[in-house]
């Protein structure tokens, strides 16, 4: 059974704020200057949509496709309408809804790859890769494994929380950079947040 974030949507942002302060938002916003002026942007698993307000703040005429399966998350994201500069196509569905769409200049996966199991991850990364334009960028923000005991414990606690509340099947963090590297991407920019346990990367395809 796929995960369902409906039951946590109402508390998601406050909980993230209580644990990580502003780090979650700062990390997701740090590389928004990599977005081209009139870019086509795909956001997968956007949650409550905080990132849409950040995109609007760029004052660029971006065309954004926002894909999120949870109705409660989506309804929160829609409440952020209207936007001044960006145009948003809200699609309540899983990432699979993007298959067959034209490629995007920017694909954003923030705290999204961590919902998948090891069995699913390779395929999902491959599928997302096919949605990024040849010269496009993949913006990825997520937790990283550090080996520091209290951070390991916190990650385990978060997985347990989302297993109980959202039926999350993914149960541990993977090295997402290695998966993207398999698809020919390399990080051209990286920045760490919250004692090194959150990292925000800009990935580009390497020349083949
Ligand atoms: C951990 S939350 C992150 C939300 C948001 N990106 C953020 O950073 O605040 C993961 C989100 O991915 C969504 N999700 C789960 N499986 C998905 C899928 N297959 N395709 C698209 N979104 C998915 C969930 O509903 C949830 O909103």
Automatic annotation (TrEMBL):
<keyword id="KW-0489">Methyltransferase</keyword>
<dbReference type="GO" id="GO:0032259">
    <property type="term" value="P:methylation"/>
</dbReference>
<dbReference type="InterPro" id="IPR029063">
    <property type="entry name" value="SAM-dependent_MTases_sf"/>
</dbReference>
<dbReference type="InterPro" id="IPR030373">
    <property type="entry name" value="PABS_CS"/>
</dbReference>
<dbReference type="InterPro" id="IPR041698">
    <property type="entry name" value="Methyltransf_25"/>
</dbReference>
<keyword id="KW-0808">Transferase</keyword>
<dbReference type="GO" id="GO:0008168">
    <property type="term" value="F:methyltransferase activity"/>
</dbReference>
<dbReference type="Pfam" id="PF13649">
    <property type="entry name" value="Methyltransf_25"/>
</dbReference>
<protein>
    <submittedName>
        <fullName>Class I SAM-dependent methyltransferase</fullName>
    </submittedName>
</protein>
<feature type="domain" description="Methyltransferase">
    <location>
        <begin position="41"/>
        <end position="136"/>
    </location>
</feature>
């Amino acid at each position: 059974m796929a995960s369902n974030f409906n039951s946590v949507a109402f508390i998601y942002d406050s909980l993230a704020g209580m644990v990580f302060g502003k780090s979650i938002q700062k990390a997701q916003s740090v590389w928004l200057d990599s977005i081209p002026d009139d870019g086509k942007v795909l956001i997968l698993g956007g949650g409550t949509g905080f990132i849409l307000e950040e995109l609007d703040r760029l004052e660029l005429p971006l065309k954004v496709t926002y894909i999120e399966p949870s109705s409660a998350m989506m309804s929160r994201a829609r409440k952020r309408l209207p936007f001044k500069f960006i145009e948003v196509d809200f699609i309540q569905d899983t990432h699979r809804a993007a298959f067959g769409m034209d490629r995007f200049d920017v694909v954003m996966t923030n705290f999204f790859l961590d919902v998948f199991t090891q069995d699913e991850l390779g395929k999902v990364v491959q599928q997302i890769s096919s949605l990024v334009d040849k010269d496009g960028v993949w913006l990825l923000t997520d937790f990283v494994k550090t080996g520091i005991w209290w951070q390991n414990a916190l990650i385990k606690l978060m997985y347990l929380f989302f297993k109980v509340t959202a039926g999350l099947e993914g149960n541990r963090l993977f090295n997402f950079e290695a998966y993207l590297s398999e698809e020919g991407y390399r990080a051209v920019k990286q920045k760490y947040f919250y004692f090194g346990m959150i990292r925000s990367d800009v990935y580009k395809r390497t020349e083949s």
